[in-house]
Specification:
The complex is a heterotrimer of chains A (214), B (206) and C (332). By secondary structure, chain A is an all-alpha fold. In chain A, 83% of the residues lie in helices and 0% in strands. Chain A is elongated and about 65 Å long. By secondary structure, chain B is an all-alpha fold. Chain B has a single domain, classed as MetI-like (MetI-like fold), CATH 1.10.3720. Chain B contains nine helices and no strands. In chain B, helix 3 runs antiparallel to helix 5, helix 5 runs antiparallel to helix 7 and helix 8 runs antiparallel to helix 9. Chain B is elongated and about 65 Å long. The chains are: A mainly alpha (214), B mainly alpha (206), C alpha/beta (332). Chains in contact: A-B, B-C.
Chain lengths: 214, 206, 332
Amino acid sequence: MFIEAWEYLAGHQAQFLAALWRHVALSASALAIAAAIAVPLGVRLADKGGSALVAINAANIGRTLPSLAVLALVMPIMGTGFAPSLFALTLLALPPILINTHTAIRQVDPDIVDAARGMGMTALEIVRKVELPIALPVIFAGIRTAAVQVVSGAVLAAYIGGGGLGDFITAGIAMMALPQLLVGAIPATLLSLGTDALFASIQRALTPAGLRAR
Amino acid sequence: MKWLINHWEDVLIALGEHVAIALTALVIASVVSLALGIWAAKNERVYRVSLAVSGFLYTIPTLAFLALLIPVVGLGKTNAIICMVAFSLMILIRNVATGIREVPEEVTDAARGMGMHPAEVLLRVELPLAMPVIVAGLRIAAVTVISVTVVGAYVNAGGLGTLIFSGMSNDFAPKIWTGAITACALAVVADLSLARLESRLKARAV
Amino acid sequence: MIDLDALTKSFPGSPRPAVDRLTLTIPAGEVCVLIGPSGCGKTTTMRMINRMIEPDAGTIMVGGRNILHVDPVELRRSIGYVIQQVGLFPHWSIAENIATVPRLLGWDAKRTGARVDELLSLVGMEPAQYRQRFPRELSGGQKQRVGVARALAADPPVMLMDEPFGALDPITRTRLQAEFLRILRGLKKTIVFVTHDIDEAIKMGDRMAIMKNGELVQYDTPEAILARPADAFVDEFVGSDRALKRLALIPAADFVIDPVGSGKPGASVAADASARDALSAMLATDADSVTLIDENGAARGTITLAAMRARLIARGDGSASEPRPLSNNQGP
């Protein structure tokens, strides 16, 4: 079975690499856009009270929505292809990053912020030099969660024409062709695991030495 | 919407299937995780190993997991349920173990010192006090399981995903809407109900 | 009642034993305070008595039974256990907390309920008001009262108390110490009380066991230890004001030289005051004598500084096992 899969891969290299590249491009873009939106938003909302609650509640609900359902909902509106997939995946990545950023900033010890303000730091300086560095590990944990979710979701993007490794899987299931299926499933799994490992090590590197557990 | 009104029985059947599969998976996952979680709470090595293994399983993309199970169990509900149980293990084991470990030391010390058997301490003190954290984990597991079931339709597990896939292949938007929105609604309802349960338990066991 | 014989315990990674061949006998009905600097082994010793820690060597007899041959769970149900952080079960009401051991022993609901109310009253908490409350609604002092009630629930002959008042603020602590002594007055219990606070030890203990590095250094009544510390360590440990501490244990009435007094009003002090209070009054008013006045204002006697000094020295050469004058525990 695996030998056949390997042969299938060998015979369809260009197709595979295109799909792989698509998958990575889709995931990376969605993640980047989501982070670019959610991190600043999370920082802003952390200092507010009431208005933050609406956004955070929305994010909490967003986090529970089945990935495929979100992808499917985009299709009647935006059609199929790269753009709708990107849109849907970005939507999926927003909640974990937003929630983590918001929580992380709020959990910074208020005494520390008070001391910083007392020493004469401006609001912007406090965010940049105190709150963000301390909150960074948790923020990044959110990005890591989102990354895995996006890579996983990108597999499902095959259903709305997004391309990526999911194409091999869906085709494999539809035609009951195991080799094809494996050519999609195994690399997708490896990609997801690799992404998690990559972000885990970045997270470790980003944790200020003083805050590292144990 | 007209479609929905005309076909509400189909929707209900799909919903029923969906809930049935999800519930089955949750129950199995809970039983396994409770046992493993209690063991992990008391044993550091078991904790680390079970968290590593279940974390690994959790990272596998849903569709890939379902696909990889096909050579082993074929298509159908069993396939989806195995996948769901595997995904839920990490969060449930972690929360059971953490919940038990977070019971204040003086409370378990007092319980033991007063003459409770270890089993009594577990059942009458540790588990009740760990409930809020365990339910928090159940909440995430429930949502995960509902989400997987949607995809599970593609491997013939049934559920609301069938509406979505059917709608997609026939380019029939109302079916897609109905399936997707119902699935979302189900997930939100499950999440909110368990959230209510969680905060009620928290108030009791502070 | 409690016999420790060559009790020894070592923990891995530590060069010397935590408890080193400790031999000690606690008579029934007494409060024995285990005291010493941190790391001296007092808590470890206490926790071996209910086998929360298992000894490496030596024996422990409680009420004539070798507890190493008794099932630990059964043993613990017959020993009251009070710890510093109390450890009330947050998910149970006060009544359910107190009822823990009775329930484990299978008491019926009626008997248990009556006992819960009895104990709440005993610790000074109105049963109707507190029965259904939860631990989170209580103050620190109240929690520990419930902790004591819980330990007394099955009426165990022995109680272990590990710094029970240590987590409380000084005012509450003093109040609870007095309360607990009052509670003990009516009961015949053998208490092992661990503390690092010498003043608490003197106040609470019929006997003090001073420990250092796992070994017993001196075991005697507080007054005897204060009068004759066994070595330089004990001398330093009890504090450089040990003479004054000792005076606090002796009633002023013991030093009265003539019943009615030579008529000089001067300094006065309540008739039931301690000798230290009398001395303090003398110093405050720069007088050489002080008159004891009872609650009706009548003079009960006079004390002079000179007489106090003379009698104190005479007392110091007395027997080592002089009963503690202000003891609230009437022995068997």
